[in-house]
TrEMBL record:
Pfam families: adh_short_C2. Gene3D superfamilies: NAD(P)-binding Rossmann-like Domain (3.40.50.720). Belongs to the short-chain dehydrogenases/reductases (SDR) family. PANTHER family: EG:BACR7A4.14 PROTEIN-RELATED (PTHR43975:SF2), ZGC:101858 (PTHR43975). This is SDR family oxidoreductase. InterPro entries: NAD(P)-bd_dom_sf, SDR_fam.
Amino acid sequence: MSFSITGKTAIVTGAASGIGLAIARHFADKGANVMFADVDEDRLDAEIGEEARGDGPIRSFAGNFCEKLAITNLLSATIDAFDRVDILVNAARRMALSDPLSADADAVSDLFRENVMSGLRLTQMTAKRMMHWADQNAVEPGTPIGSIINLSSVAVRVTQPELLGYSVSCAAVEQVTRSMAVALAPKGIRVNAVAIGSVMSGSLQYALKEDAAARQKIVAQTPLGRIAAPDELSETVQFLASDASSFITGQVLTVDGGRGLLDGVRFAAH
């Protein structure tokens, strides 16, 4: 079974920075046609502006994907450029700290809207485009036609009260993953998620510069004793996007170096 995604078309959200950018670039390096999608048009242009111009395998689209029109336009732009969509990676996420005893309801709602509802709507609309393409091309029922990958977090399993809104939204993403996997399985579309720990993206590098002690804290809570490189996550997402995972759906793969295995309470050996 092949890990190849050469010639496939992928939409990656959150692709102007951090993990989304790493995944999108990895996919392009592996031969996929990639639509880099993000709400931040200036940063998107700064990262891949020149590469996205012309008729090559990289394109970009900026929009607020909490809005249905932006999703419709994203899908239309992708299909106009590449004819079809094979892979969707919902990598756009926002993390915010809050006091669990006085969490602002609006702030929690905003995180839920951005981290859950936008990805759900994009998943629904992308799946419909995949199914429409299959109907137009007389694809036999049950034939694999697409793979959708959502990003979640180890925060779902490692309780961090200050991340109440973020943790709840990621838990919802995992349930959406399972529900959509069952609903779309008869259509030949697989839906999985990757729950991540700490990955050395640009945003984490910046955060560690601001808080030098944070690196030691992360490493101490990670049995493998290090922070993941972006490609380690990108390779996992590629696996789920490829035919190598053709019998995997509705699953949450945890890529955290074992961080979710620890309860934080340690006893000295005698």
